[in-house]
Amino acid sequence: MSTLFVSDLDGTLLNADAFVSRRSVELLRPPLDDGMLLAVATARSPATVMRLMRPLALATPAVLMTGTMLYDLSAACCLATTPICGQAVDAICEFLEYTGQEAMAYCVKDKQLSVYYKAFACEFERAFASKRTGTLYKRFLQTDSYPRSLAGGDVLLFLFAVPTRQQVQIIYDALVGIPGIYSHFYADEYGSGGYLLEVFPEGCTKASALARVLQMTGAQRIVSFGDNINDIPMFRMSVHSCAVANAVPEARAAASEVIGANTEDGVARWLAAHWREWA
User: Fold this and answer.
1) Which of 22, 45, 97, 266 has its CA 20 to 30 A from that of 171?
2) 162 and 26: one domain?
3) Containing structural domain, residue 136
């Protein structure tokens, strides 16, 4: 029975410096050359995933932006999107206009991903964007009107980057009643002190996107790896799931087993030792 192995990136396959370690690449290269099907499922967009995954040269479709985009890493092109419904986009735009709150709106037009923003409201937001500009795979475009700029595109994500937990909680509480969306927030994993709030289409998860990847690859089952709450739906659809040792308690409780931490090349070590048992 053909198996698709799927790994989250941040906190899972990536180490504390936010890249795939040389040791992980060394461990994964032989199984990949021998036909192991490995995909990534992440909240990240193509801009950073293309760079991070280059050493592994993955041919399997990637699940990006928490399932709103399927992406061909080898051809550098968008395969499919699952957008936020128009009414929800309108409601969020009204909230932004009424409150003056800033957000980054990720929108696909003609298979090109653009991020629209009005102004960066804090240093954390500015630093977040500066690390992701200057890439072929995503454009940051300043706008004076979210509705006008987003018209005619597939809006995949509204991202709020704010410096304090109190601020992110206020935004979350204001948006939670809008039909057709799912939102959650978390502290930045790399020690900036800021918080990120993501707004996605309701029902769109890594798991829902992976069902499409199974069809594309012909695989019949999934073995998955993760560290956070948004990995739990993926765990539930997997025949076997592995939480890294540094995972949040909810993810560890939902997983079939707990493996080595991301700083110990836990995913790569497990795959090197066990992938044939599931292949």
Assistant:
1) 45
2) no
3) 86-201
> If you write DSSP's letter for every residue of the chain in order, what string do you get?
--EEEEE-IIIIIS-TTSS--HHHHHHHHHHHHTT-EEEEB-S--HHHHHHHHTTTT--SPEEEGGGTEEEETTTTEEEEE-PPPHHHHHHHHHHHHHH----EEEEEETTEEEEEES---SHHHHHHHHTT-SBTTBEEEE-S-HHHHHTTSEEEEEEEEES-HHHHHHHHHHHTTSTTEEEEEEE-TTS-S-EEEEEEETT--HHHHHHHHHHHHT--EEEEEE-SGGGHHHHHTSSEEEEETTS-HHHHHHSSEEE--GGGTHHHHHHHHHHHHH-
For residues 230 and 43, the answer to whether their CB atoms sit within 8 Å is yes
Domain identity same for 116 and 138: yes
Which residue reads 């180490």 in tokens?
A: 15
pLDDT in tens, 174-205: 999 999 999 989 887 665 678 989 999 998 98
C-alpha 226/C-alpha 241 separation (Å) is: 8
Count of domains for the chain? 2
- Report the predicted TM-score, pTM, of the whole model to 2 decimal places: 0.85
The pLDDT assigned to 190 comes to 61
